[in-house]
Amino acid sequence: MNDHAFAWQIGGHSSAYHTCQLDRALRGIRRAGFSFVELAGIPGWVQHVKFDAEQPVHQLLARYELQAVSVSAHSDLTTEDGVTFLLRAIEWASRNDVPIINTAVGGHSGSEESIETFLAFVPAIDRAARRAGVVVGLETHGGIMASAVESVRLLARIGSPRIRLTYDTGNVAYFAGVRAVDDLPIALDYLACVHLKDHVGPKGQWNFPALGDGDVDIAGVLRLLREAAFAGPCSVELDFGGAPWPPVPAVDYSMRRSARFLAAQGVAVRGAARLRRPEV
């Protein structure tokens, strides 16, 4: 597989740097060798960008020679407040030249999801995305979209090219107990973005290590995406074992380790720093 490098936009997700400011997150992602980034703007989780405030995001991205290909803006889309938050994120993404906004129906917690309540808000979300020229990616996250099966069923009802799927390879193991390589094929036509995330253990076990260190067949997922000529962005998401979050040198190490794993699969991740295990 490593005879031809992928041409996708593959970056690091800033949420891996859960305890850091955006500047330090971007530095770690760039030093790992990535040229692209997914920014995190998730209240209650990690909020490197805020959609109701002006931040020097462009300057920081330019400093580290990174391009933002997506932003995570999870909120509860079964509530008016959650939808209002997403609409602000859509406007922010349009102003900042970020083409994809990732979110989840029930927000970060994924609780109390209602399909019909969410669908009532879809026309407003769709209009905003069309007006802004962006795509909203609904993530495999929680009950309504725990796997590709449920997600494709919902997206078929929505029927909008501006509302598509963000497929998370670790979340489908965590929420649905399914293997991404078995689950992903039926969703390939609906993809906006892919979160490359590894997972260790059974359904419901929070353990998301560096790529290649878990049970998810990431190499198999990459083969499926390559065969489908998937042209959208991917981001490496590292959620580790939850609290307490690993020290920053350990996050740096896992991001670089993930970049090296991708390079071994033929994915072009340039300029990765020398890999040293941190003292923790």
Task: Lay out the secondary structure.
Elements: E1 10-13, H1 22-31, E2 36-42, E3 46-47, H2 57-63, E4 67-72, H3 80-95, E5 100-103, H4 115-132, E6 135-139, H5 148-158, E7 163-168, H6 171-176, H7 180-183, E8 191-196, H8 218-227, E9 234-236, H9 248-264
Parallel strand pairs: 1-2, 1-9, 2-4, 4-5, 5-6, 6-7, 7-8, 8-9
Antiparallel strand pairs: 2-3
Helix pairs in contact: 3-4
Helix content: 25-40%
Helix/strand-derived class?
A: alpha/beta
Specify the number of helices.
Answer: 9
Element-by-element helix/strand order: EHEEHEHEHEHEHHEHEH
Rounded to an integer in angstroms, the radius of gyration calculated over CA atoms is 17 Å
Give the distance, in angstroms, between the N- and C-terminal Cα atoms: 34 Å
Task: Summarize the biggest pleated sheet.
Answer: 8 strands, parallel, barrel
**Contiguous runs where pLDDT drops below 50 for at least 5 residues:** 1-6, 271-280
Average of per-residue pLDDT values: 91
Q: Strand content of the residues, in percent? A: 15-25%
Number of strands: 9
Q: Shape, please?
A: globular
Give me the side-by-side strand order of the main sheet. 1-2-4-5-6-7-8-9
Protein traits:
280 residues, alpha/beta, eight-stranded parallel β-barrel, 9 helices, globular
Please provide a brief summary of the model.
The protein is an alpha/beta fold and 280 residues long. It has helices at 22-31, 57-63, 80-95, 115-132, 148-158, 171-176, 180-183, 218-227, 248-264, and strands at residues 10-13, 36-42, 46-47, 67-72, 100-103, 135-139, 163-168, 191-196, 234-236. An eight-stranded parallel beta barrel has the order 1-2-4-5-6-7-8-9, surrounded by four helices.
